[in-house]
Amino acid sequence: MITAFRIIAFLEGISYILLLFIAVPVKYLLEDESYVKLLGMPHGLLFVAYIALAFVVRAEQKWSNFILTKILMAALIPFATFYIDFKYLKPLAK
User: Fold this and answer.
1) Residues in contact with 14: Cβ distance below 8 Å, sequence separation at least 6, in sequence order
2) φ and ψ of 21, to 5 deg
3) pTM of the model
4) Mean pLDDT along residues 1-25
């Protein structure tokens, strides 16, 4: 399950960065909503999968509420899912 969570965390982080730093500026600067429409749904699905898998892996790894909160908050901060992977998930994959 850790490998699946790491993949989802990576993809969620990439989709969030693309949405936030490419699609949204294009929408407001060039008045073209197509990138937001293209990236919005995949990002939303990856976000939901990230949250769901965080709870599954929490039960599996017996994480504290503090660690779970950090992992859940990472989904809201750009680049934070990469830190979570490095700090918490990668050591578990070994």
Assistant:
1) none
2) -105, -10
3) 0.91
4) 96
Residues 6+ apart with CB under 8 A from 78: 13, 16, 17, 20, 21
Instruction: Summarize pLDDT for 77-89 with one digit per residue, the tens.
Output: 999 999 999 999 9
What does DSSP assign to residue 31?
A: -
Which tens digits make up the pLDDT trace of 24-48? 999 999 999 999 999 999 999 999 9
Q: Using CA atoms, how far apart are residues 6 and 85, in angstroms rounded to an integer?
A: 6
Q: What are the tokens at 73?
A: 């908050």
Do residues 8 and 50 touch, judged by C-beta distance below 8 A? yes
Give the long-range contacts of residues 14-19, CB within 8 A, separation 24 or more. 15/39, 15/42, 15/43, 15/46, 16/43, 16/47, 16/75, 16/78, 16/81, 17/78, 17/79, 18/43, 19/43
